[in-house]
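Escalation from tier 1.

The customer reports that the assembly of two entities below gives different structure tokens on two consecutive runs. Tier 1 could not reproduce it. I'm attaching the input and our single run for tier 2 to review.
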Amino acid sequence: MIQFNQVSKRYPGGFEALKNLSFQIDAGELVFLAGHSGAGKSTLLKLIAGIDRPTAGSVVVNGQNLASISRGALPFLRRHIGLIFQDHKILFDRTVFDNVMLPLDIVGYDRREAARRARAALDKVGLLGREKLNPISLSGGEQQRLCIARAVVHRPSILLADEPTGNLDRAYALDIMELFKSFHQVGVTIVISAHDESLMADYGRRILRLNKGQFTQ
Amino acid sequence: MIHWLRLHRLALLATLRLILAHPLASLFNLLVIGIAVALPLGLYALVSNLQGLAGQLPTETQASVFLHTNAGPADIGRVQTLLSQDPAIASARHINKHQALKDLEQTSGMADLLAGLGDNPLPDSFELTLKDGASTDLAALQTRLKADAAIEYVQLDSEWAQRLASIIRLGREAALTVAALFGAALMLITANLIRMQILTRREEIEVSKLIGATDSFIRRPFLYFAAVQGLLGALVGIALVGLGLNRLNGPVSQLASLYGQSFQLHLPSPPVLGLSLSTVALLSLFGATLSVGKHLRSIGN
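Tier 1 run:
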């Protein structure tokens, strides 16, 4: 599903965020990405989503090499990926419901079917009663849930979450982790990054530990 | 196909929502576009109305030739031949001075006064119709004819009509030039409006790109917005011209009635209005395309 071959990423200015990484994540796997801030977790996730391109090596997602993918093909790859951002990237100029509709509008879904799916996604994250609100009135944890609903509403085969529990207290964080677990159970490939390893340990899944752009054991 | 239509409907709805969401800003934008449209269109309307008026005037070029009052039959015969041989003259009609006096007595009601005159004060004259194209060389004709000793005066009756026609041609050119200038301005205005829109919706564009929006999906609402705004702005412009002409119509018909005419200013014909609408929409669309192409690349990946 996701394959890195000797991938390096150097940003303009010379900072080397990732150094010669090779690994593979199989379809349906749930993998944690651990490491301190600045260890390269976000960069790694950005490479999988095609937001950044590797300076060396190849990143293969869904059989497509992102090092050489054309600009026109990128959106169609992204439609197989659900992205959950640490800063949520929620749009505050529209309702909770319309935020979740966005990925379906982009694909051009039938309006009624889209609305049904959006409600199902909101129900899944426990926000169904608040669909008409402006997201500004949601708490931090609720905004994170909204972000998750938007990431899964179009049923992606890969879910990438960058520090989804970063700003949440432990009870909220556990809730969110349970959500991911349920997506994993229906066969979604999931990569979750976090700097707090205590949450990961309970799940007994593979953990990739990054330090200064390299894997450690 | 249905999918494609759905995407376009979505973009159009988003456009209308956007216009209604900021009524005051939208109104200002429409007024800016409207004024840019109204100036050349108004000028054009005035010029074409004037042209309609000029169309009612005699267009073929006429001239009158007056002989000295003491000119005899031999002189008249010579001038008649001279006129019939001149290459610029299509026909010449002789008006006998006795006949002219009789006509004057009948039309002016000054029979008593004229009867009191000993001599006929009127000269023999010729009414000329000039050939097409001769109008360009009227001055030459004038000097040519004046060379004959019997001819006292050559008057070009339609000279002022030709001046009017030249002025109208000039006005037409001016309208076109102004239209071109304002067209370019309109494009730049739209490009700038779209640029500001892109900047205010930067976040939305960024997020949309991240979740799989194609470039055309992102571009589409901006292009729709520009085209719809251009159309509405052009309608505002036409309305402004209509109001302006309506305001002028009172004094204009008063002026016309002084000359025993009835005359009203009208908006340009529907085809011209349609052409203006579509030109404005296309120019806006073009400006938006330039702007979107330039600025979208700078946002996200």
